[in-house]
Amino acid sequence: MQVVKKFLIRIFVGINVFVALLMLLSGLSSFAHPAIAPHISLLGLSFPIFLIINIIFILFWLLFSARRVWIPLVSLLVCFPFVRDYCPVNMPKEEPEGTIKVMSFNVESFDSGRRDEAGNYIIPTYLFQSKADIICLQETFVAGGITWAWMNDIMQRNGYYLGRIHGGRTGGLTCYSKFPILSTRLIDYESKSNASILLELKYNSDTIYVINNHLESIKFSRADRKQYKEIFTEPQQEIVEAGVRTIISKMSKAAAVRGRQVDRVAEVVDSLRGKPIILCG
User: Fold this and answer.
1) Alpha-carbon distance 179 to 245, whole Å?
2) Please, where are the H alpha helices in 137-236?
3) pTM
4) Interval 193-209: pLDDT, tens
5) Are 107 and 123 in contact (CB under 8 A)?
6) Phi, psi of 212 (to 5 degrees)
């Protein structure tokens, strides 16, 4: 019995070490440029899975071999910076005087104009009731009875200025600000339907720059979503393999484009070095 136990313990030690290495690699994958190594950059999506498995191993070793609990503990310690990236913990503290409240919200066509029980549009009501000083919105395509004339009127009556480039691929990006908007311009980069805009806001005697982003989407079609669903509802080998290939291919291509877009946005941020910048999206 002792021989079997020792054998099983060694197997679980090997599994734990292997998972710990995968967790480290998935965390380090954030340093891989998506345009150069898109598949490696996707490995970071699996980090929470390996994190949970390592936490389970802590409980496992405490129950069956406490002296080996150091394996998952050390792996968690080494990967702690990546854990903070995925699970940031910010302790509540008193807001300093002069704090600016910023909201970033992908409204997805204002949820097609969904209303509450009182008949009010849910998302527009939430926006002006938030009392945010700067509101950066993505996918602001009007629908469900909401019009731009109505939207802008109600926001202006609540003290907001409008920043938006009309038409083209920037139509989905909008900024409402309690501070006067001096200028709005498109950040030029590769994309057919996504964009980033740079806004210049007057804040007392100073200037604040706001960048509102909607970087490259994966663009899963209805057929892709159906195929993804079939992976779980009809887990046959051919369906699973075809579905996984499609998902990884589309995610990798989108990640590569996003990587180049981020480089362009970073160039703009660098050109404004030393000036107050708010990055949203």
Assistant:
1) 47
2) 148-157, 222-233
3) 0.83
4) 889 999 999 998 899 99
5) yes
6) -105, 120
